[in-house]
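FAQ: What does a ligand-bound record look like?

Like this one, built around uridine-diphosphate-N-acetylglucosamine:
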Amino acid sequence: MIFSKIYNYKQIISQNSYYFNSNGVYVIFIYENIKELIMGIKSIILAAGKGTRMKSEKSKGLHTIFDKTLLGYVLDAVNGTHMIEQSYVIVGHQAEAVTKFVEENYGNNAKTILQTPQLGTGHAVSMACEDLDNFDGEVIILCGDTPLITSNTLANFIDAHKDNKADITVMSAIFENPKNYGRIVRNIDQTLKKIVEEKDATREEKQIQEINAGIYCINWQKVKKAFSELKSNNAQGEYYLTDIIAWGVKKNLNVQAFTLKDNTEILGINSKVQLAEAAKILNNRNLKKLMEKGVTIVDPATTWISEDTEIGTDTIVYPSVYINGKNKIGNNCQIGPMSHIRGNCQVGNHVRIGNFVEIKNSIIKDNTNVSHLSYVGDSELGSHVNIGAGTITANYNPVTKVKNRTIIGDYANTGSNSVLVAPIQLEEGAFVAAGAVATKNVKAWALALSRAPMKVFENWVKKTKEQ
Ligand code: UD1
Ligand code: CA
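The answer part, i.e. the structure of the complex:
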């Protein structure tokens, strides 16, 4: 959202790096995230649990889809609303690693709060009470294990909460198979009554298909008291966040549910099976977006493309391609089958990246071919370059641990099975012949050969057999 405003008085707007002091001068101020300033909403993200069902040493929030952590997806969705000024991430299990991740990647508007021991989701939220004591606004609460939630849905959810003038809004969804989720229990008149966890539910309650998505929006000053009044007399002996619904109803607060349309958005990751399911859903979303923009994807079932990859129109992606990280690929390219693009790659137009080719951290200009069995890492390839089958850029020195660059000029060629030992430069039109191990730069239009001369022994086979 772009918003411009004219200030004629001394004003300081401080939001991260946005800082203003205009001292009586007219200033035109464009601030993209103006909603954050107006709304003053904070978020609490629960990520302290052990994630027992993942059967892993790693904290659940640090498991990844396309190398991005589950917690990262949630924080990006929150930040993408441009409505949330600050997030508190509740950490516990593997607290050090999770804190390091949050500080390094989201430190500008997120901080972590330690929860030890972990006595349940309600207890987790209560850890933020001290920080938020005087906060007079709305707080949204999410779980760090629902990476498919989108900014759009969160924004609609907050808007609905405001439109309803609600004190508590819980996100719900209708699931055909609601197993393991908390169920939304309603009164006969459809108003909310409570949430009951699977483990505490009666047989009738287990039939309810409306589930708790685990995302809430609350008026902090009205609801904060709930967190000191929650009880742990339930099947798991935990302080359940879900009990704020019944608490709010009892206090005559305005308690609402916001029912989601796209159920996939709130898939909670509790196991490796669900992690794979979520990855597939996320990937399908990315592929659909690309196809809608004019990319041909021959077989979406075997193609994986990260959300940070842009691809131009009329590029064809053949089966079994895996593209990870942030990349930009141009128009009319052919990728695959069976190519692996590992991130930070800029590929021009009319480029061919063929079977069993791996590309990483490289620039490839227009009309260049890397058609078969090659590795191109930390490289810059000009246009009209032809990389022969089996060419390897030897970019990494495992002794010094240094990665070096390979620079290849326009119209250069490499023969099959050549190794380019970086740092190295092939100037325009240079030719490295098949089987070469190139360790020195090659001048423009020169030929580089490094191979033992071939010897032929006439009738050698025949004679050997006769002996
Ligand atoms: C929770 C909800 C359930 C809902 C589901 C949606 C409760 C009691 N249940 O169940 O109604 O349908 O989410 O996905 O809230 N956590 C902490 N500290 C703790 C315990 C948990 O930070 O002491 C964190 C976890 O790391 C996780 C989140 O809270 O990110 C949810 O915990 P989890 O154990 O996954 O709850 P569910 O059983 O899925
Ligand atoms: Ca969960």
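Follow-up question: can I read anything off the structure? Yes, for example: Residues 143, 145, 268, 270 surround calcium ion (ligand 2) (CB under 6 Å).
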